[in-house]
């Protein structure tokens, strides 16, 4: 990473909050303004291959992936703590599961697909963001994935949900050309 200038605490806080908010509703230009060209998202291992690079393109790809699965997506910011160039943003991610939620393996192949349930979710998350040169250079998170799975009816699986997920996986693989 080629980063140099430290960012003042108040700017780190506003930058961190903005970087979370644009995941739900930001334009590609918003990502250019907030995300450093060398930025890396440590959470991209189970996301689509286009999210696994660096910079605004990869971060925007994550937003597109989330938005494709969850309509009415928003992140309610509950608290922000800043120390130096690091901010921790405690959020509640909310939305409606209206599209297939596609999970990928380490090779970038489709691993699992959860068919849309139409259910709403409210999931606790902590996002850790490092800032430099006035933009986000690193992101990682702690999420309540089990809580999300229970709220959306993925766990425990029912016979019907297993069939719906299998059909959604087949459709996603066909759309991806695999």
What share of the residues lie within helices? 25-40%
Low-confidence stretches: none
Number of H/I helices:
5
By CATH, the topology is Nuclear Transport Factor 2, Chain: A
Strand content: 35-45%
Rounded mean pLDDT is 95
Radius of gyration: 17 Å
Separation of termini?
A: 34 Å
The structural class is alpha+beta
Number of strands: 7
Order of helices and strands: HHEHEEEEEEHH
What is the CATH C level class, in words? Alpha Beta
The outline comes out as: globular
Instruction: Please state the second-level CATH architecture.
Output: Roll
Side-by-side strand order of the widest sheet: 1-7-6-3-2
Structural domains: how many: 1
Largest sheet: 5 strands, mixed
Organism: Rhodococcus wratislaviensis
Protein name: SnoaL-like polyketide cyclase
InterPro entries: Cyclase_SnoaL-like, NTF2-like_dom_sf
GO biological process, one term: polyketide metabolic process
Summarize the structure.
Helices cover 35% and strands 36% of the residues. The protein is α+β, with helices and mostly antiparallel strands.
Describe the fold and architecture:
The protein has 178 residues and is an alpha+beta fold. It has one domain: Nuclear Transport Factor 2, Chain: A, CATH 3.10.450. The protein is 35% helix and 36% strand. It is built from 5 helices and 7 strands, in the order ααβαββββββαα. It has helices at residues 9-25, 28-34, 56-69, 145-151, 159-176; strands at residues 35-41, 70-83, 86-97, 101-104, 110-114, 120-132, 135-143. A 5-stranded mixed beta sheet has the order 1-7-6-3-2. The chain has a two-stranded antiparallel ribbon with strand order 4-5. Strand 2 (70-83) and strand 3 (86-97) form a beta hairpin. Helix 2 crosses helix 3 (56-69). The N and C termini lie far apart (34 Å).
């Amino acid at each position: 990473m080629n980063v140099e200038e430290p960012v003042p605490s108040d700017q780190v806080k506003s930058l961190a909050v903005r970087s979370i908010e644009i995941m739900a509703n930001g334009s590609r230009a918003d990502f250019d303004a907030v995300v450093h060209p060398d930025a890396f998202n440590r959470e991209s291992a189970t996301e689509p291959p286009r999210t696994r690079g660096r910079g605004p393109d990869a971060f925007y790809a994550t937003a597109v992936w989330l938005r494709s699965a969850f309509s009415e997506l928003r992140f309610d910011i509950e608290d922000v703590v800043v120390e130096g160039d690091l901010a921790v943003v405690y959020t509640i991610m909310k939305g409606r599961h209206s599209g297939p939620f596609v999970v990928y393996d380490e090779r970038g192949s489709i691993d699992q697909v959860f068919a849309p349930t139409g259910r709403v979710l409210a999931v606790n998350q902590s996002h850790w963001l490092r800032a430099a040169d006035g933009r986000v250079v690193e992101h990682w998170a702690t999420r309540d994935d089990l809580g999300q799975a229970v709220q959306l009816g993925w766990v425990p699986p029912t016979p019907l949900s297993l069939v719906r997920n299998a059909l959604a996986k087949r459709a996603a693989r066909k759309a991806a050309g695999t």
